[in-house]
Amino acid sequence: MSSNVQPQSQSRNPSGPASVVDVEQAEAALVEHYPRLVRLAYLVLPPSLGRNRRVLTAHALAQRALPRGRKSGVEVVIPAQRGTGERRNGDPGYAYVRLRVVRTALEAGLPLKRKAWPKRSQLPPLLPQVWGLRLFPRSGGADELALDQRLSALSGAARAAYVLRGFERLADPDVRDVLAAAGCAAPEEALAEADGVEAAYPLLESPEFDPCSLHARPTDLMRRRQHMKAAAVAAAAVLVCGALLGLPGDGWGPDGAAAPPYAKNPAGQAALDPGKLTKVAASTWKRSARTDFSVWPARGGLTGDRALLRRALAVWARPGESVQVSATPGTAAGAPPGPAQLLFAGEVDATRVVLLYDGLRIVRYAEPMEGTSGAALDFARVDGAGGADSGAVVVSRADGNVRYLTAPWVGSASVRDLLKPAGKGLSLHRSADGVTDPFASPATARECTSWNALRLRDNSGTSRLSTDLGELTPARLTSGRPGSPHESSPADWSKSACSLASVRSHGVRSVNSWSYARQTLPEGNGSATWVCTRAETWRGGGSRVLAQFQTAGPTGAVAAKAEDSPACGDREPLVLAGVLWKSRAGNWYVLGAGSKDVTSITASGGERVRGNVLAARTERDARARLSGELGDGRTVSTLR
Questions:
Q1: 393 by DSSP, 3-state: which?
Q2: Parallel, antiparallel, or unpaired: how do β-strands 463-467 and 426-427 relate?
Q3: What confidence score (pLDDT) does residue 38 get?
Q4: Angstrom distance (rounded) from CA 337 to CA 529
Q5: 483: helix, coil or strand?
Q6: CA–CA distance from 502 to each of 62, 374, 442, 479, 490 (Å)?
Q7: What are the distances in angstroms from CA 115 to CA 39, 105, 119, 365?
Q8: Which residues are CB-neighbours of 312 under 8 A, at least 6 positions away?
Q9: Rounded to whole angstroms, what are the CA distances from 304 to 344, 345, 352, 404, 458?
Q10: How far is 444 from 152, CA to CA, in rounded Å?
Q11: What would the 3-class secondary structure string for 581-638 be?
Q12: Under 8 Å between Cβ of 407 and 144
């Protein structure tokens, strides 16, 4: 015999009656609608919690939505059914657990008070708990990011009103009743505040807001290896080292996670002295003829923290075993040759970050707010960088998002989804120091459902497009014939953006997209565009070239690729590629196209055409080879 949850009062809800709900009914509703209730909690929780804690807290609130005791009770708000699609809204069990989820999610967003005990939902959840991993939903596009930022600016009650109205599809009177039952003191004000956000309700169903479909990343691989015995040994070692550090002489304590000194010489000691760091004045770039990293001013709230700067320089010179060191291909990871230039020192995403420049490299040092056991050191080569290459530097990566420190001459920043060239760009807020708000980075995405690019507009009105490929500096995106490329627009990359995944973490400086030929397809199947994308690296070698065949579909097909090839570059602005193509009628063709300097193309089957495009009937399993001839009699082979 099941026990019941009784209402606490006799008030009636105009949208539906107060109802008696038994525990089994509430449990059945929780099990059936668990993913929906967790998403509801995730949307109502304040984004300031961080995506990992927000995910775990959403699951915890949903799992704690059942009654605490089999005889306790609350009033259950049951909205009137508005159609078969909202049948769950007439289920008393679902209404009960939804009310519990909304109430505890609102409590989780309340500030902690000194003279009052915190509520359970305001504390990190005890269960569920994940050790050694950070969990976060899949990254969405620019539209989802814009909605998340607008919701984060709302109060908790207004955010709940927006979600109940858009995600739960409740009418305003029903939303008002649910908010009142959840403890909201001013439901009308919450609804009015929610009216200020554009009604982009379908985006609430996006994977960006699904805490049940998650990506996982490690937290700190070094800490995972530790166990209780090692901790006891470490504690004893700390006591011994603390006594030794009190003795006369130079110790390694002020250097944080750096290894012990191995040598002393005047140049080496000068490079480790924070007092000798170059700190450029804030207005120098306005008077200088140069626009590169050498005229960036020192910014951030910790530029005067000598202890932090000393640790950063010491770890740069001799990183200890616990320091996670990374460098782009072809970048030396050695000590600074002399005093470096300070670009930034400040707190970003619960981390202390220092950015340094030695004329050849950008160096990023990061340490957690407490201790230096999780210190990281990143190197990126930037020698020869000009104004087009020195617009931004990565200052933080967290939960699949990226933040940039922008150049002092940047007037505005925005995010564009290259796969949605017609979409409106998202304006990117920057702090007084030039640090952008976080946005989803394509550098770690496994699926190419969106590809965000950073658009920077300088004070002269020049706009440049770049994208994050997993390195400290974003790769510049250009378009046009080699030798005379121009600044790209998102439309130039709408079908090629996903191919950028092949050059992640490759030390890429810039990527150019060149539409080198257009071909009318046989049998009235429309037309195709042949595009060559070339990724240039900071080190000079290791360039990568892709020839793509693009039809009316959303993405192109890779026809050929090569590495360390001069094709599609300044030295050799030539390319020839071919594909095996099937018409809508089921006939197979070998298609080929070369750049405009190609005057004829010959297939291995004997077909020869004048001009730079070829279309010849063939069989499905044919292995045709193409060759081209230039106007001066030279031959060109297909890209490989």
A1: strand
A2: unpaired
A3: 95
A4: 49
A5: coil
A6: 40, 30, 12, 18, 19
A7: 32, 22, 13, 39
A8: 345, 354, 356, 365
A9: 11, 8, 13, 21, 28
A10: 24
A11: EECCCCCEEEEEEECCCEEEEEECCCCEEECCEEEEECCCCCCCCEEEEECCCCEEEC
A12: no
The whole-angstrom separation of Cα 190 and Cα 162 is 9
C-alpha–C-alpha distance, residues 20 and 18, integer Å = 7
CA gap 560, 576 in Å, rounded:
9
Q: How many CA atoms lie within 13 A of 481 on its CB side?
A: 9
Beta bridge partners of 353: 346, 366
* pLDDT averaged per 10 residues, the chain (length 640): 35 49 84 94 91 91 80 50 52 90 92 72 77 77 87 94 95 94 94 92 91 78 54 64 51 61 65 92 94 96 96 92 93 90 96 96 93 85 94 95 97 96 93 96 91 95 96 97 94 95 95 97 96 96 96 91 95 95 95 96 90 93 90 92
The amino acid at 585: A
Distance CA 473, CA 23 (A): 56
* Burial class of residue 556 in the structure, from the number of CB atoms within 10 Å of its CB (0-12 exposed, 13-18 middle, 19+ buried): buried
Closest CA to 107 of 123, 124, 121: 121
The DSSP output letter for 382 is -
Predicted local distance difference test score (pLDDT) of residue 81: 43
Query: In 3-state terms, what secondary structure has residue 480?
Result: coil
Cα(36)–Cα(197) distance, integer angstroms: 22
SS3 per residue for 77-125: CCCCCCCHHHHHHHCHHHHHHHHHHHHHHHHHCCCCCCCCCCCHHHCCC
**CA atoms of 274 and 255, how far apart (whole Å):** 12
Burial class of 575 by CB neighbour count within 10 A (0 to 12, 13 to 18, 19+): buried
The 3-state secondary structure of 408-442 reads CCEEEEEEEECCCCCCCCEECCECCCCEECCEECC
* DSSP per-residue codes, 137-149: EPP--HHHHHHHH
Alpha carbon distance 469, 392 (integer Å): 13
Say how far apart CA 339 and CA 262 lie, in whole Å: 18
- Size (the chain), residues: 640
| Termini Cα distance of the chain | 75
Q: Which residues contact 586 (CB under 8 A, 6 or more apart)?
A: none
Q: Is the peptide bond before 128 cis (omega within 30 degrees of 0)?
A: yes
CA dist 356 and 170 (Å) reads 53
Which residues have C-beta within 8 Å of that of residue 8, sequence separation ≥ 6?
73, 74, 75
Distance of alpha carbon 314 from alpha carbon 565, whole angstroms: 40
Q: What tokens were used for 180?
A: 């009142």
Cβ–Cβ < 8 Å for 343, 298: yes
- 325, two tokens: 């060191």
* Interaxial angle between packed helices 156-166 and 172-181, expressed in degrees from 0 to 180 and rounded to the nearest 10: 140
DSSP string, 504-527: TTS-EEEEEEEEEEEEEPGGG--E
Q: Tell me which amino acid residue 372 is.
A: T
> Is the distance from CB of 589 to CB of 522 less than 8 angstroms?
yes
DSSP 346: E
d(CA 72, CA 50): 33
Cβ 259 vs Cβ 318: under 8 Å: yes
